[in-house]
From TrEMBL:
Keywords: TPR repeat. Pfam families: ANAPC3, TPR_1, TPR_19, TPR_7, TPR_8. TPR repeats lie at residues 67-100, 101-134, 135-168, 169-202, 203-236, 305-338, 373-406. This is Tetratricopeptide repeat protein. One of its GO terms (biological process) is cell division. The keyword Nucleotide-binding does not apply. The lineage of its organism: Bacteria, Candidatus Galligastranaerophilus. It comes from Candidatus Galligastranaerophilus intestinavium. Gene3D superfamilies: Tetratricopeptide repeat domain.
């Protein structure tokens, strides 16, 4: 806020140029106060603040003291960070002249430094009342509004500053920063380009243009502006990271790592540059190289969250569970509210089937962010693994409450209710999912299966047909349609359809089970025992190949009795 104070003394100095001239003017009775003010200003400009302070104080103590003396005293203290003292002197200046716009502006800036928001707003307003065309006042008011988060007011004030001085790039540059922070990259780009039109070698404007284009995924343009920024400021590391990560996004591995080599040749090295290189290693599946970089960064600074978290992701990718666990816990030690880290740790425990540990971290995550929907999924899956379907359903329902368009929650709920034989609730959830996304084959398939379980056979057949329209080679849907044909008393058609898949799926359990169902339906319809032998052969094949099955065993026993009875009668 007070960066321009170093230039103030030049504006104040209106009488003479050299200290010796001030000494001679000080001998004049008519302007002693002004003489000391300007003498102090020259001393301040040369860096001699102690002597400058003495001259300003001498001027302030005179009977005919000017407000400028107190203003300059305030500036000296403001530059030292003693804002309360600066405020006192700016107020003294205003006691001499309460229409002095510059004193009001400086007072406003000092108030903003001590977070006196209301007083700062008031002082800026009064300053502009007395001087409506002051570029610096509008500029600093814009900075003040930005600081307190009033972005629109900041942009308005900065626009006024630009209109007053269109040859000064700072106002439009700061406007670009505000737009960029709000992720309004289109307007940010306009402002930064305007800054470059005013100041063609404005390296920061060039860099931020590169950054905005990078955020818009316009990587080629981002690279171009980063190169221009690098030409204007060869030591700015962010130019190298923008270029390298843009090449990374363009999947140009050689050019990506060439940038890091160029940075090394330029003698540049920093945490930020190494971290960026580690991220690029990850992007190109060079996980061991990434691990080496992040471990080195952690050795240099063990308190950095980003490098520990990046290291944990590398370990997770390589399925190094123990190392990943250690790094994730380290991240949470450094940043206990790192919700994504909590989620990854919980997922790791869930993968290892450590359900209680997983539930603990999911719930800890939800305590920090109740709308983290994936955590509800995780808890539900953990309870499902524990065999606690009631709690699983409870947490899938919560996920659905927070996101009633969430297909995953609806499908999981449908299947969970189906596992509990609650066909009514299963059908309700499946139908809701279908209404949200009728073009999702998984959704339509789930809906069809539940319809079939509820003996809504013709509706199920319609949905299985829809699945095949969306995904023509989806064999489970074709097998489901074959099952529907069996249930609608068309077993021979079903068997003919099955023959098309014998070579590829003849040894699959689903195929053999459908054959069994078809034979059973024919036996039921024709009421004779000539198929008993085939049915028993299929039952034996299922039990010997795929293991115990109580239903198949019961079918086998039933047809053995039928066969025995037939032999006795014969």
């Amino acid at each position: 806020m007070f960066r321009f104070f170093q230039k103030i003394s030049k504006q104040v100095n209106k009488l003479n140029t050299f200290v010796n001239d001030y000494k001679s003017v000080a001998k004049e009775v008519s302007l002693p106060s002004y003489a000391y003010v300007n003498w102090g200003a020259q001393l301040a400009e040369s860096g001699n603040e102690k002597d400058a302070l003495e001259k300003f104080e001498q001027s302030a103590q005179m009977v005919n003291s000017t407000p400028e003396a107190f203003v300059n005293l305030g500036i000296i203290f403001a530059r030292k960070g003693e804002f309360e003292q600066a405020i006192k002197y700016f107020k003294k200046a205003l006691k001499i002249d309460d229409t002095y716009a510059k004193a009001w502006a400086l007072l406003a800036s000092a108030y903003s430094e001590v977070d006196e928001v209301r007083e700062a707003k008031k002082a800026f307003k009064i300053s502009l009342k007395f001087d409506k065309r002051n570029f610096h006042t509008y500029l600093n008011q814009g900075i003040f509004f930005a600081k307190i988060g009033e972005t629109q007011e900041a942009l308005s004030s900065l626009k006024n500053a630009y209109l007053l001085n269109p040859n000064e790039a700072q106002s439009v540059f700061l406007s670009g920063i505000l737009y960029s922070q709000a992720a309004d990259y289109g307007n940010a780009i306009k402002m930064f380009k305007l800054a470059i039109n005013i100041s063609p070698f404005h390296s920061e404007a060039l860099y931020h243009l590169a950054y905005c284009y990078f955020q818009q995924k316009n990587y080629e343009t981002a690279i171009g502006y980063a190169k221009k920024s690098r030409s204007a400021n060869p030591t700015k590391i962010e130019n190298y990271t923008i270029m390298a990560e843009s090449y990374m996004a363009l999947e140009n591995k050689d050019e990506c790592f060439k940038i890091y080599d160029e940075a090394k040749k330029a003698g540049l090295d920093s945490y930020k540059l190494s971290y960026s290189k580690g991220i690029c290693y990850q992007a190109f599946d060079m996980w061991e190289e990434a691990i080496h970089i992040f471990k080195t960064l952690n050795q240099l600074d063990d308190s950095n969250v980003a490098s520990h978290y990046a290291l944990s992701l590398s370990y997770l990718k390589l399925d190094k569970k123990e190392e990943a666990n250690k790094e994730l816990l380290k991240v949470l030690e450094l940043d206990p509210k790192h919700t994504v880290c909590m989620f990854n740790l919980a997922q790791l425990y869930l993968k290892e089937k450590k359900c209680d540990d997983a539930i603990f971290w999911y719930k800890k995550l939800l305590a920090a962010d109740a709308k983290f929907v994936s955590a509800y999924f995780g808890i539900a899956c953990a309870y499902q693994l524990k065999g606690d379907m009631q709690n699983a359903i409870k947490y899938w329902e919560r996920a659905y409450e927070y996101d009633n368009k969430n297909i995953g929650a609806l499908l999981n709920l449908a299947n969970a209710y189906l596992s509990q034989n609650d066909l009514q609730m299963a059908l309700r959830k499946a139908r809701s999912a279908y209404l949200v996304d009728k073009k999702n084959p998984d959704v339509v398939m789930t809906y069809a299966i539940i319809l079939l379980r509820g003996d809504n056979i013709y509706d199920a057949m319609e949905k299985f047909t829809e699945v095949l329209e969306l995904k023509p080679d989806f064999v489970p849907a074709r097998f489901a349609l074959i099952e529907c044909k069996i249930k609608t008393n068309k077993p021979k058609e079903a068997m003919a359809e099955l023959e098309k898949y014998r070579d590829e799926y003849g040894q699959k359990r689903e195929f053999v089970m459908l054959n069994l169902l078809a034979y059973l339906k024919i036996d039921e319809m024709e009421q004779n025992n000539y198929l008993s032998g085939q049915i028993l052969d299929i039952c034996d094949k299922i039990l010997s190949t795929y293991g115990e099955d109580s239903w198949v065993q019961s079918v086998k026993e039933e047809f053995e009795k039928k066969q025995n009875n037939a032999e006795c009668e014969g």
